[in-house]
Fold this sequence. Notes:
This protein is an alpha/beta fold and 283 residues long.
Amino acid sequence: MAVFLTAALLTMACPSMAFDMSQSTRCVAIPNQMKVCKDVGYSEMRLPNFLGHSNLEGEVVPRSEDWRPLLQTGCHPQAQAFLCSIIAPVCLDTFIQPCRSLCVAVRDSCAPVLACQGHSWPEALDCDRFPAEQDICLSHHTKFNHFTKDLPKPACQNCPSVEEAPATKRVLDSFCQHDFAVTAKFHRRRQPMGEPEYDIEGRVEFIRQGPLLPYDTRHLLQQWLLINLRCANVLVRPGRSQLYVLTGSVQPDGTLALTFLFTWQKKDANITVATRKWKHHRC
């Protein structure tokens, strides 16, 4: 992601890419390969877009793909609508830009994710450039916040401590000291070019559930890997999967923090014993 995203940010910061609303435009169908905006709610877009991109195959589609990893982090529920209103503006009789309030909401949630990977919020997405709420624009819907407010959220953090071949007592103590403990297999996929991609392979098994939800935890850990790419790069070797026992807590602000990771190999009998003893263990 880092290599491609850097190119995207440089493109968006380039003053020459600014869009002139007085120039003529044309409407085209959003192509199937433009997956970032395929299900955004409309089927036709204007070219040039608000970044000044006019070449669909050479500029618009590849540049849109640069943003897919950021959107997959779930940094804001309206991040897709915001970005697609810029890179694939809806084809109507008038230009519809994102409202300043929408830009601010997405920026405040997604800029920390970019910062975690060493990037700043793009100059071309300076929220002061977008119209105020009283103008015709794509607005920020606060109703989205109600669905995610009470769920733990992944955040940028320092890499958690990783321990190999821990003693049984050490593992049990970690279970007692933290809100949750799960087993998960991190997988690193080889890519023909660019940065590797990471995901959770198979099921996430609960040892101590705590505040985590069964239907949400796998996706939550997937987002954690996408946000903390530098850490993920250390935790998983290329082309390999690694099974971990993860312990952590949910912070007062609702963010999830992983604290300890124990590598679980077949030879690690102490971890196996600890997970069995936990059912009857008293902290």
